[in-house]
Amino acid sequence: MNKQALWLRLKAYTFQHVVTPNLTERIVQMFGGTDASLHAFATKISNKHQWEKRSVLRAMEEYKKFVYLGVTQGFQVTPSSVIDMIWHEHILFSKAYREFCEEVLLQPFDHYPELVPIQDETGRFSAQYLDTLIAYKLEFGIDPPEAFWGRPKFDEQATTASTSRKKENYSDSVYSSEGPLVSSFEPAEIHSSNFSEFNGYGEGGEGFDGGGAHDSWLDASDTDSSDGGGDSGSDSGGCSGGCGGCGGGD
Prior knowledge:
The protein is mainly alpha-helical. The protein contains 11 helices and 2 strands, in the order H-H-H-H-H-H-E-H-H-H-H-H-E.
């Protein structure tokens, strides 16, 4: 297992598994280029939740970072509200998500939703959320962008009151002997998007003026929506992710 190799696989991933073979030619005709599957998936999310597509594309880049943290850190990670919505939409393509785990992550990455909103559960998820933000800065060398990581799914007061448990030794992870990702790559190699026009978009909460943007697009993740396909938005409350022995189950 190698952090650099994992990150390069994630960075290059275009969500190609969500496109079934019988739709491949049509999707390429509609969206063009080698990133047709990525744009098709982003368009689905944009239409379903009334988010600007460029916001969705940036959120998908941050989702890849969340998954990277979940695989490498040796403890269960908890996403923000925005990242969680992308995760839920990915999981809805159950076969595609399974293939993503097998071929890109090389291991399962399981989803552990909050069962009931009780204080112990919420407190645990809030602590995991803060741990995840700390791990983000350690691995990627910058603070998590506020626009995508600034809002937890659960009670924000519980998050503020929670004590973060900074992990000094991720002994449960097969990646624990390696240094942070930022020590192996230049920052631009980690944070530059596959789409140059979106670089820096949304940093610090900026850039979300217009339709479906700023707080309004974040609020969309709090509601169930349907795009006619029979699926719905994410559940309320917290959730976490882990892989095999990475922190155990909930």
